[in-house]
Amino acid sequence: MEMIKWKAILESLLFAAGDEGLTLKQICAVMEMEESQASTIVKEMQEDFEADETRGLTVVLLAGTYQLVTKKTHSIYLRRLVESPSVSTLSQAGLETLAIIAYKQPITRVEIEQIRGVKTERPIQTLMAKGLIKDVGRMDAPGRPIMYGTTKEFLDYFNLKEISELPPLPDRVEEDDVQEEADLFFERFQETVDSFDE
């Protein structure tokens, strides 16, 4: 089959997969081809999209999956369309909670509250509703509290391939200075938000 037809098929598959995206292994299985051939098709498709200024979409690798996404250069228009992106409507409490979960996951509500020094039930509910965090299991401790972690949507929003791409924290943080630690989480996390918005 000609390369152009393979790329059209892949475009259809990525569109159908939506936010879930497709791993290279899934692409190989559906298109019945070797990884090297699938990689070549994905790479050429990415180059085609990026080089063609008449296209509004491109292909990116996020969290181990290839996804069809809108180009960053059109973000201003997308913002006009969607007046209130999900994260921008978060309160400071929500952003602080999200930052703590991002850096400390998996983490329980009580542990988050120990860092923040205030209740976090409502911010956690909001973050869950927005799909930015999820229940990732229960701690093997009395009461088996729920542990929280970030989602694939979190990685997508902040344009991260892996959670390890978050800004690094200092090597040493005094254990008794939890407020400073919380402030640091928020500061670093806010920097990521700001850089994404630029």
TrEMBL record:
Range of residues in the leader sequence: none
Q: A Pfam family this protein belongs to?
A: SMC_ScpB
Q: What are the record's GO terms for cellular component?
A: cytoplasm
Where does this polypeptide localize?
A: Cytoplasm
Chief localization class? cytoplasm
The source's superkingdom equals Bacteria
| Database matches in InterPro entries | ScpB_csome_segregation, WH-like_DNA-bd_sf, WH_DNA-bd_sf
Tell whether Cell cycle is among the UniProt keywords: yes
Q: Which UniProt keywords apply?
A: Cell cycle, Cell division, Chromosome partition, Cytoplasm
Q: Quaternary form?
A: Homodimer. Homodimerization may be required to stabilize the binding of ScpA to the Smc head domains. Component of a cohesin-like complex composed of ScpA, ScpB and the Smc homodimer, in which ScpA and ScpB bind to the head domain of Smc. The presence of the three proteins is required for the association of the complex with DNA.
The family note in this entry says: Belongs to the ScpB family.
Primary role: Participates in chromosomal partition during cell division. May act via the formation of a condensin-like complex containing Smc and ScpA that pull DNA away from mid-cell into both cell halves.
Give the matching PANTHER family.
SEGREGATION AND CONDENSATION PROTEIN B
- Report the NCBIfam families cross-referenced here: SMC-Scp complex subunit ScpB
Question: Which protein are we looking at?
Answer: Segregation and condensation protein B
Organism encoding this protein = Mangrovibacillus cuniculi
Q: What does the record give as the organism's lineage?
A: Bacteria, Bacillati, Bacillota, Bacilli, Bacillales
